[in-house]
Automatic annotation (TrEMBL):
Residues 1-43, 407-428, 499-528 are annotated as: Disordered. Keywords: Heme, Hydrogen peroxide, Iron, Metal-binding, Oxidoreductase, Peroxidase. Transmembrane segments: none annotated. Residues 416-428, 516-528 have a biased composition (Basic and acidic residues). Its cofactor is heme. The keyword Metal-binding applies. Heme binds at residue 357. Coiled coil: none annotated. This is Catalase.
Length: 528
C-alpha cells in the first residue's frame, strides 16, 4: 500500500510512452498540486497547467452542465437575524444583507445531482448540489455548495480527473465502480467523503429534507478590514432530514426517477414551504496549529464543540419557477460571486472553483449570461463591457456619456465607487511551491465519522462498499481496505469481509454490473 502522505503514482514504473503531458506536449511532473504561496496558498495566476486543464474541462459538454446536470429549483426569501449567534453580526462582517433583523433578500435555489446526466434518476448515489443566489442590494451573492459538508479532493488540479473517473468510460459509455475506486484508492484524502457517500447520506430522500453546505472556507470582513474564516451550513427546519437505504432507493427508482424534483414542486404548490436556517462556523484567520488538520482543507469537518454552528438567518422557498428552462436550466452560479463584507480564503479548491464556475457559464450559457433575468442582479448594473453572443442591452448608467466605454475618463464616463470600509489586506511571506498542505490527516475524521454512525448506518455503509468493491481488481480492493483500516480497524475488517461475501474473490475483476441479466430474463417474441 502507498504511504498516506506520499505520491501514490511514485511507486508505479512508467515508460516515456505513457508520460502525462499537456496539450503543448510538455511533460507534467506534478499533477496533484497547484503552485501556491507556501503550502497553504493562495494560488497564483501563472498556474498554466491548472488553467489549461480546467478551461478544457469546462468545455467538455454541450450544452448540458459538465457536473450538476440534473436539477430542480425554486424561488424564496432569506430573512436575516441581525446577529451571529448572540453577537452583533457587524462584529464580523459588513455585508449588508445580514445587518438588520428582519431584513429580507430574494433568493433562487437550484438543487442537483452532481455526476449523472440531465435525465438520470434522482435516486442514484451521488452528492447533491445546493446552490443559492441572493439578490442583495449590493448585487448578487452566490453560495455554491453541496448537501455534504466535505469533498473528495483538496486541490483543484485533480478535479477534471476526478470527474472523468466518476463519469462513463470513454469507450463503453458506462460508469464503473472500478474506475471510481481506481481514482479514490490513489487519492487517500477522499476516504472521508467515500465514507459519507456509501452510507445512507449518499442518497438523500429528496431535496427538501437535506442539509446544505458551502463546503469551502470563506472569510467575513468587517468595517475595519479585519477578517475571520467562516464555513456556511444550511440546516433544514420543520421538514427535517431524511436519507434512503439502497434497497429503498432501488424500489423508488423502479417506478419513478423524478421523485425529488416532483417532491419539491408539489410541496411548494400546496403551501408546504421548506425552510432552512443558515448557520456559520467562525474561526480566527491563522494556521491553528492546535488542530490535527489544516482548517482550509475541504476534506475535513470543523469540530462543532470548538466552532459551534451560529445562526444568522432563515430561508424559505415559496414559489416555483414559471418555466424550467428559463429559470432552472439557465441559472448560473459562481463561487467568485461575493458582495462587500464577504471574501475568499486561501482554500486551494475554492480558488480553482472560482475560475472554473464563471468560465463554464460563459461557455455553456453565453458571454452575456448575466443579462438573463434569472441571473441578473436586482440592483443597478453599469459596466463598460459590451458585445458578445446574445447581448440585448448595454449596461449603461443614467446620464452616462454613451461615447465613453472606458474608465478613468473626464468626459462623463463611469466612476469608481467609494469604499465602504477598510480593505482586508492579508500578508504573505512564503516561497512559491508545488506542495500539499502539511497536516493532511487523511484518515482521522473518516474513522470518527464511521464511529459516529448508528449501527444501521454502518451496516448500510459496509454493504454498499462490499458490493461496489467486489467488482474491482484486487489491488484496488487492497488499497481501499488499507485506507479504511487506517481510519478504523473495525471499518477495514468489515469491508474486507463484505467484499468476500459479495464474491470479490471469485468474480471476474473489473467487469462491474452484469449486462447479461436482461438477456437471460427476457421473454422471446416473434416478429410482426
Amino acid at each position: 500500500m502507498t504511504e498516506a502522505n506520499g505520491n501514490p503514482n511514485q511507486s508505479r514504473p512508467e515508460s516515456a510512452e505513457n508520460t502525462l503531458t499537456n496539450r503543448q506536449g510538455h511533460p507534467i511532473t506534478d499533477n496533484q498540486n497547484t503552485r501556491t504561496v507556501g503550502s497553504r496558498g493562495p494560488t497564483t495566476m501563472e498556474n498554466y497547467h491548472l488553467l489549461e486543464k480546467i478551461s478544457h474541462f469546462d468545455r467538455e459538454r454541450i450544452p448540458e452542465r459538465v457536473v450538476h446536470a440534473r436539477g430542480a429549483g425554486a424561488h424564496g426569501v432569506f430573512e436575516a437575524y441581525g446577529k451571529v449567534g448572540e453577537e452583533p453580526v457587524s462584529k464580523y462582517t459588513r455585508a449588508k444583507l445580514f445587518q438588520e433583523a428582519g431584513k429580507q433578500t430574494p433568493v433562487f435555489v437550484r438543487f442537483s445531482t452532481v455526476i449523472h446526466g440531465g435525465h438520470s434518476p434522482e435516486t442514484l448515489r451521488d452528492p447533491r448540489g445546493f446552490a443559492t443566489k441572493f439578490y442583495t442590494e449590493d448585487g448578487n451573492w452566490d453560495l455554491v455548495g453541496n448537501n455534504l459538508k466535505i469533498f473528495f479532493i483538496r486541490d483543484p488540479l485533480k478535479f477534471p480527473d476526478m470527474v472523468h473517473a466518476f463519469k462513463p468510460d470513454p469507450l463503453t459509455n458506462a460508469q464503473s465502480m472500478e474506475r471510481f475506486f481506481d481514482f479514490v484508492s490513489l487519492s487517500p484524502e477522499a476516504t472521508h467523503m467515500v465514507t459519507f457517500i456509501f452510507s445512507p447520506w449518499g442518497i438523500p430522500a429528496n431535496y427538501r429534507q437535506m442539509q446544505g453546505s458551502g463546503v469551502n472556507t470563506y472569510k467575513w470582513v468587517n468595517a475595519e478590514g479585519d477578517a475571520v474564516l467562516v464555513k456556511y451550513h444550511w440546516e433544514p427546519l420543520g421538514q427535517g432530514i431524511k436519507n434512503l437505504l439502497q434497497k429503498e432507493a432501488s424500489e423508488i427508482q423502479a417506478t419513478e426517477f423524478n421523485h425529488a424534483t416532483l417532491d419539491l414542486y408539489h410541496a411548494i404548490e400546496r403551501g408546504d414551504y421548506p425552510e432552512w436556517e443558515l448557520c456559520v462556523q467562525i474561526m480566527s484567520d491563522d494556521e491553528h496549529p492546535e488542530l490535527d488538520f489544516d482548517p482550509l482543507d475541504p476534506t475535513k469537518l470543523w469540530p462543532v464543540d470548538q466552532f459551534p454552528f451560529l445562526p444568522v438567518g432563515k430561508m424559505t422557498l415559496n414559489r416555483n419557477p414559471e418555466d424550467y428552462f428559463t429559470e432552472v436550466e439557465q441559472a448560473a452560479f459562481g463561487t467568485g460571486v461575493l458582495v462587500d463584507g464577504l471574501d475568499f480564503s486561501d482554500d486551494k479548491l475554492l480558488q480553482g472553483r472560482t475560475f472554473s464556475y464563471s468560465d463554464t457559464q460563459r461557455y455553456r450559457v453565453g458571454s452575456n449570461y448575466l443579462q438573463l433575468p434569472i441571473n441578473a442582479p436586482k440592483s443597478r448594473v453599469a459596466t463598460n463591457q459590451s458585445g458578445g453572443q446574445m447581448q440585448y442591452k448595454v449596461d449603461r448608467a443614467p446620464g452616462q456619456n454613451p461615447h465613453v466605454n472606458y474608465e478613468p475618463s473626464s468626459l462623463g464616463g463611469l466612476k469608481e465607487a467609494p469604499k465602504s470600509g477598510k480593505e482586508h489586506e492579508p500578508h504573505y511571506d512564503a516561497k512559491l511551491v508545488r506542495q500539499k498542505i502539511e497536516r493532511t490527516n487523511d484518515f482521522g475524521q473518516a474513522g470518527e465519522t464511521y464511529r459516529s454512525f448508528e449501527d444501521w448506518e454502518r451496516d448500510e455503509l459496509i454493504s454498499n462498499l462490499g458490493s461496489a468493491l467486489a467488482t474491482c481488481r484486487a489491488d484496488i480492493q487492497e488499497r481501499m481496505i488499507g485506507y479504511f483500516t487506517q481510519a478504523d480497524a473495525d471499518y477495514g475488517r468489515r469491508v474486507a469481509e463484505a467484499i468476500r461475501q459479495a464474491g470479490g474473490d471469485t468474480k471476474p475483476q473489473g467487469t462491474g454490473a452484469d449486462p447479461s441479466k436482461a438477456d437471460s430474463k427476457g421473454h422471446e417474441a416473434g416478429p410482426y
